[in-house]
Amino acid sequence: MNKDQLSLLSYSKMQIGALTFLRVLIGWHFLYEGLTKLYAPGGWTSEFFLLNSAGPFSTFLKSLTVNDTVLYWVDKANVWGLILIGTSLFLGVFAKPSKILGILLLSLYYISYPPFANYSVNIPVEGSYWIVNKNLIELGALLVLYFFPSSHLTGIDNYLLTMKRKKQESQNEN
Question: Tell me: the pLDDT tens digits for 154-165?
Answer without folding.
Answer: 888 888 888 888
